[in-house]
Amino acid sequence: MSKSYRVAIVGASGAVGVEMLRVMERRNFPVSSLRLLASPRSAGNSLDFRGEGHTIEPLSLDSFQEIDIALFSAGGGISRDYAQAAVACGAVVVDNSSAFRMVPDVPLVVPEINPEDIKSHRGIIANPNCTTAISLMALNPLHRRFGLKRIFASTYQAVSGAGARAIHELRSQTEALAAGKPIEKEVFPHQIAFNVIPQVDAFLDTGYTREEMKLENEGRKILHLPTFRASVTCVRVPVYRAHSVAVSAEFEKPVDLAEAKAVLKAAPGLQYLDDGYPMPLDAAGKDDCLAGRLRLDCGMDNGLALWICGDQLLKGAALNAIQIAELL
Amino acid sequence: MSKSYRVAIVGASGAVGVEMLRVMERRNFPVSSLRLLASPRSAGNSLDFRGEGHTIEPLSLDSFQEIDIALFSAGGGISRDYAQAAVACGAVVVDNSSAFRMVPDVPLVVPEINPEDIKSHRGIIANPNCTTAISLMALNPLHRRFGLKRIFASTYQAVSGAGARAIHELRSQTEALAAGKPIEKEVFPHQIAFNVIPQVDAFLDTGYTREEMKLENEGRKILHLPTFRASVTCVRVPVYRAHSVAVSAEFEKPVDLAEAKAVLKAAPGLQYLDDGYPMPLDAAGKDDCLAGRLRLDCGMDNGLALWICGDQLLKGAALNAIQIAELL
Predict the structure, then answer these.
(1) Checking CA distances to A136, which of A55, B165, B251, B282 falls within 20 to 30 Å?
(2) B287 and B209, same structural domain?
(3) d(CA A208, CA A232)
């Protein structure tokens, strides 16, 4: 590879794909050429990058000739079907889907937490689930100091985590209700406007959803902590952008509140709010995750409760992917 | 007292007061006379009860002559200032505020859970906090079977828990945002439309809010379980009506999932949903609380995770108060 990279984005027209372009612009990522790839439906449309229009091409197995870095964000099926083709062409794949996250020889990386894992890659590096990435940005520094055992967490997940059509669905349902018209449902199984839906992703036999188990499974891999336990309830809320998580965390060592606050304030990529608390409206559009409401947990002895917000399109997806690409 | 009661409602014009009228109508509560009381601001307005208009009178210390049952729902300050006057007049007070809940000789009652506590009253019976009542409707039957030790809970609380003006605030903010106009904030400290606010009630020195500690404090009293621990995060969400709670609960005895489901299905005042899950839109306007998503908690050994929804104006307030009055 040269000092400047030939980049392809798979799923360029999606909510995360568009954010990837903006993040590369903001961070001056060294792009020598850019290839935008998407389904035939989106092909032909144009997206701006650094003031120039780039036409979206239809994704094919031949799309990855002369590409150094291929950023995938088009769902697990597309990643499974096309990532190996990109690797065979010599590209390094940074995959935002869940397809390869738990594959043993695929590094799963949050650059502030386990950048060294990237070295062992064999062509594919996975980007974690959005809620996992955001939660670990605050939990990892506490883990390093006090030794994380387990968490109980509930999420408040924005609709944009379900893509651009979900943003439209919240808006159109809100307008329909204001006008006294029937609502339309397409992305979510139930009305999301003025409601909350305690389901994100499909149910497993255990009664947990796939989304809920990602925090435990991906957390173990990213933190190198195979004993980590996480009981999570993932809930979709009528918020456009940025996820929030309420967490009770138990640690191996006795916790000290002042020290824990100092740890969070010093953590890279995280802002700890002493006055007030963060909300999704504050986190939307921010690279940093936000934490607040740290307190000694009254449900367990070596416990801390806290509240974390993060833009799931940025740290939860596009930003983390570009940060991984920067590590390369 | 005769078989029919002379009833006064303090705070008749509020969100809960109006629901009390509807609940008494629906349940054919034996009302021989009805006196509606509120602040001078609302006095003179009229509210319907069983097809007849009743004029709201201004509350005074003389308002409780010839009253058998006084239902208070006008905030803690009004209860502290007027409840003893009502008792002195011979009325039994059912108080929906937090003023007397933790006073040792005031029973704090959920009729499905601790109806026998009512017998020891000295004129005042307290109605629990809305989130507490709704959560305990599902936790109590599990406690009776498995022995409750502690819970970790996060709430998704509707704006109507903050009164009628809060309902208006969500609606007007939603409209303003749709029209591209600036929003107005009066009830909530931050924008509630398309946002979530991790604060309900005032903060304590511990970092928890008053609302968050009610589940532990009131839960101990209602369940007669002084060792009960609860770590709670209370969050306001842009939902008009009905609260939701995500709970991880630890028990003394080993739990069995099938047995726990059977326990919930048999619980009075509770509907357990086997298919799908309840949402606030389903619980709004329902007397019964709704539970779903019961599963073995993957964060602890004798644990169950579940999701509970309930109309906080009904079981969380007006319905529970009328049920207490029925027990009298």
Answers:
(1) B251
(2) yes
(3) 8
Please identify among residues 76-95 of chain B the ones whose CB lies closer than 8 Å to any CB of chain A: none
A194 close contact with B: CB closer than 8 A: yes
Q: Does residue A139 share a domain with residue A120?
A: no
CB contact set of A317 (below 8 Å; sequence gap of 6+): A16, A19, A73, A96, A127, A130
- What is the per-residue pLDDT across B211-229, written as a single tens digit (0 to 9) for each? 999 999 999 999 999 999 9
pLDDT at B202: 96
Give the residues of chain A that fall short of pLDDT 50: 1-2
Question: 3-class SS at A296?
Answer: strand
Distance CA B47, CA B35 (A): 11
- Whether residues B203 and B121 share a domain: the answer is no
Q: Which of B43, B37, B9, B35 is nearest to B23 (CA)?
A: B9
pLDDT tens across B70-104, in order?
Answer: 999 999 999 999 999 999 999 999 999 999 999 99
Task: Look up tokens 């999570």; give the residue.
Answer: A232
Round the average pLDDT of chain B to a whole number and report it.
Answer: 96
Number of structural domains chain B divides into = 2
* B160: nearest CA partner in chain A: A194
Q: Hey, are the CB atoms on B244 and A196 less than 8 Å from each other? A: yes
Same domain flag for A80 and A211: no
Catalytic residue, candidates A54, A89, A121, A130: A130
The complex scores an ipTM of 0.95
- Smallest CA–CA distance, residue B328 to chain A, in Å, is 36
Q: To the nearest whole angstrom, how far is the Cα of A243 from the nearest Cα of chain B?
A: 10
CA angle B148/A156/A306 to nearest 5° reads 65
Identify whether the C-beta of residue B94 lies closer than 8 Å to the C-beta of residue B288: no
Q: Do A194 and B238 touch (CB under 8 A)?
A: yes
Q: Which residues span the domain enclosing B198? A: 132-312
A60's tokens = 């094919």
DSSP-assigned letter for residue A120? G
- What Å distances lie between residue B130 and B72, B90, B135, B257, CA to CA? 15, 28, 9, 27
Is residue A194 located within the same domain as residue A306? yes
Of the residues A143, A243, A289, A309, only one is catalytic, namely A243
Q: Any idea what the CATH number is for the domain that residue B123 is in?
A: 3.40.50.720
Catalytic residues of B: 130, 243
CB contact under 8 A, A195 and B150: no
Asked whether the beta carbons of residue B154 and residue A298 sit closer than 8 angstroms, the reply is: no
The predicted-structure confidence for B43-76, as pLDDT tens digits, reads as follows 999 999 999 999 999 999 999 999 999 999 999 9
- Measuring CA to CA, how many Å separate A34 from each of A15, A209, B93, B135? 18, 36, 73, 53
Whether B297 has its CB under 8 Å from any CB of chain A: the answer is yes
